Every structure is written in C-alpha cells, then in structure tokens.
Amino acid sequence: MELNSVKPNLQVEVGGVRLKNPALAASGTFGYGEEYAPWTDLGKIGGIVTKGLSWEPRLGNPTPRLAETPAGLLNAIGLQNVGVKRFLQTKLPALRNYDTAIIVNIFGHTEAEYITVARELSLAEGIAALELNISCPNVTQGGMQFGATPPSTYQIVSAVRQATHFPLWVKLSPNVADIAAIAEAAQAAGADALSLVNTFLGLAIDIRSRQPKLANITGGLSGPAIKPLALRMVWEVAKKVEIPVVGIGGICCAEDALEYIIAGAHAVEVGTANFIDPQAIPKIVAGIETYLLENGVADIHSLIGSLKLPEREV
Ligand SMILES: Cc1cc2nc3c(=O)[nH]c(=O)nc-3n(C[C@H](O)[C@H](O)[C@H](O)COP(=O)(O)O)c2cc1C
Among 81, 82, 103, 198, which residue has the most ligand 1 atoms within 8 Å of its CB, making it the best to mutate? Predict the structure, then answer.
C-alpha cells in the first residue's frame, strides 16, 4: 500500500490541555518524569502525570508492596511521595525543561487536604492540569472512599473545583458498581476531563506461608490483565459524558491505545508498560502515527469514538 506522506494530526485537546499527541505517562509509574529522562525522550511524550502528591511527604506502605500476577502487577505502594513543597522546589523546575504537558496527580486524606494541595499547586507555573485521584485502593484513609458514590464524588470534585483555576481531570476507580453514574457526578461538579481507570482491588497469596504476598494484604491490579475490563468502562462512560475521557489500563502497544481511542477516549495513559520498556510511550506514539498513515486517516479526531457496532436484528 502506498502511504500518504502528509503527517497526520496527532494533537488533541483534553479538558483545556493541548497535547502534542494522545499518549501520556500514568501517575505512579513514571516517578516525577526526570527518572525516565536518561532512558527515553520526554519531548516525544504527550504528557506526564506525576506521582500522586499529598500535602505532607509519605513513605507509603511497608514492603513487600509489589507482586507479579499473570499478565498483571499487584501493587500496594500506598502513595509514597515527596509532598507538595518538595515537589515545587525540586521536581517541577526540572520538569519544566521538557516539551511535554505536566499533569499533577493529587490526593488527600480529608477534603480540607485536597483543597490545600490544589490551592498551593495553583500558585505554581508550568502545570497544565491537576488530576484528582479519588480512586487509590491502597490507603486506609482517603483515596477510593471519596470516589465510591455519586454524591461523595460530586462533593469532593466541586470542593477542589473551587480551589483551583487549573483544568481539573478526575481519576475514577473501577471498584464500583456503576462507573458511568460516578462519571456523570464528576462532570456535574465541574470536572474538565475524566481519567479512567485506576487499579482493580486484588489479592495474591503465597501458598507456602499461607500469607498474602503483599504486606498491605490487598493491592491494586494493573497491566494487560485489566485491559478488557477498563476498555469496557471507558466505552460506557464516553457514551454518557460530554467531557473528554482519558483511557487507562493495560496499554502496552499502539494497538491497545487505538482500541481505547476507537472506544471513545481522547487520549490514553500508559502505566505498567513503562516498567517493562521505558520507551513504551514513544513507540506507541510512532505506532499510532503509522496506523493513521496506513489507513489514510488525516486527523486522530476522526478515530475517537468511531467504534462500529453490529446492527441488531429487530
Ligand atoms: C506502582 C504503581 C503506582 C501507582 N501510583 C498511582 C498514583 O500515585 N496515583 C494514581 O492516580 N494512580 C496510580 N497508579 C495507577 C496507574 O496510574 C494506572 O491507573 C493503573 O496502573 C492502570 O494502568 P496500567 O494498567 O497501564 O498500569 C499506580 C499504579 C502502579 C502500578
């Protein structure tokens, strides 16, 4: 097949953030960005979502905090992070040197902490958006409980909405019965975009010791094992909301990313795959571009939500 030599458009706008391409690094799997600079060209990545930040620094959960499962990774890091002040002093300045969008993932143990974190970050320059984590399964206080029901989601999102002028992406948990209802609550409360999903609550047991493999007992499952589950959620939510959806879950290659885009995602975040190949994201971007060229698609927008469904017999 002869390829059209004109470069297709990969630029997308997600909730007030212009991205040079639709593949971002997912929070918690890419440190604060700089850790990956020796291994990959950060300028080729659509955006970097930094490790979840709380007001105070956190050491996270006791070890062991990671267990591999078939086609998956179970983690219970417990939101280890340097805290807002050190992030602003030592991490953000380095990140500003790279030509990529910086999205800062935040969380709190209380609503007041979420607000303080959002306010303090809003004074900084070089941040494109905040991603509100209301979906971490690995902390006893805060995290997932905020995003567990539509009313609690509405409450926390509207509180943070009032605390920041930055675009606000809200990251949802898959550990709920009806994710579309939670998504609609986040949209009604003023979210500019939705990131979905965070990890699936799981358990792994060492049969010799008969103990859980993780010190935290349970953990969050990520990686290829969750892709069909997350993809179904993205598809369901993208049909229901007006705001853009960022697809996350098990994306390892361009084909995976394209499935999410066809299901309705405006962009994707890549997580666990970064641990296997630090160049996974630039490779995904190149693969998306090749697919667009090969299929004569001039603009990625015409692919978003283009899923063709079989016609049902009446
Ligand atoms: C080790 C690890 C740490 C993570 N830390 C965070 C975090 O701090 N904040 C957050 O919102 N999500 C966090 N996540 C979830 C990822 O951002 C992502 O939603 C999830 O891993 C699914 O994507 P994947 O299958 O591509 O890894 C973490 C995931 C892993 C594996």
Answer: 198
pLDDT tops 70 at residue 78: yes
Residues with CB under 6 A from ligand 1: 26-29, 51-52, 73, 75, 77, 79, 105, 133, 136, 171, 198-199, 222-223, 226, 248-251, 270-273
The pTM of the whole model exceeds 0.90: yes
Mean pLDDT, residues 271-280: 98
Mention the CATH class of domain 12-60+80-201+223-302.
alpha beta
Token pair belonging to 82? 């340097």
Q: What is the distance in A from the centroid of ligand 1 to the CA of 122?
A: 23
Q: Where are the domains of the chain?
A: 12-60+80-201+223-302
pLDDT band at residue 6 under the 50/70/90 scheme: confident
H helix intervals, the chain: 83-86, 92-95, 111-122, 150-163, 179-188, 227-240, 254-263, 273-276, 280-294
Would you state the torsion angle of the CA atoms of residues 24, 70, 35, 284, taken in this order, to the nearest 10 degrees? -30
Do 249 and 231 form a contact (C-beta atoms < 8 A)?
yes
pLDDT tens, 234-248? 999 999 999 999 999
